[in-house]
Known about the structure:
The chain has 123 residues and is of the alpha+beta class. It has a four-stranded antiparallel sheet. It has a single domain (3-115), classed as Alpha-Beta Plaits (2-Layer Sandwich), CATH 3.30.70. The protein is globular. The mean pLDDT is 94. The protein is built from three helices and four strands.
Amino acid sequence: xxYIQGFVIPVPTASKDAFIAHARKADEVFIEHGALKIWExxxxxxxxxxxxxxxxxxxxxxxxxxxxxxxxxxxxxxxxAMHAKMDELTKTDPRFSMESNPPPFDGKRMIYGGFxxxxxxxE
Length: 123
């Protein structure tokens, strides 16, 4: 069964095009290492909550937009194999390099996790 990794990232709103360009390059690397699909979703209807919300989860600032992304892997083992290579890839693949393809966001405020699907409808 598939394995899903989800991400929530605060991205400066003015850097939308830079984020898309960064994601297109970096996401190719995940696909080449076994990812089945990747979604990068720019927040367009993300309400502010009274107790908690996406903005608070990533300490988003007024000039930032919340991005919700996820990667579908064929299984957890494929995901783990890719992540074991990430340090090496940041040094050897310019699409994954902090120097040649720097992320236009503060990665320290990104939240992420791996999930095993329990209900899947449609497709």
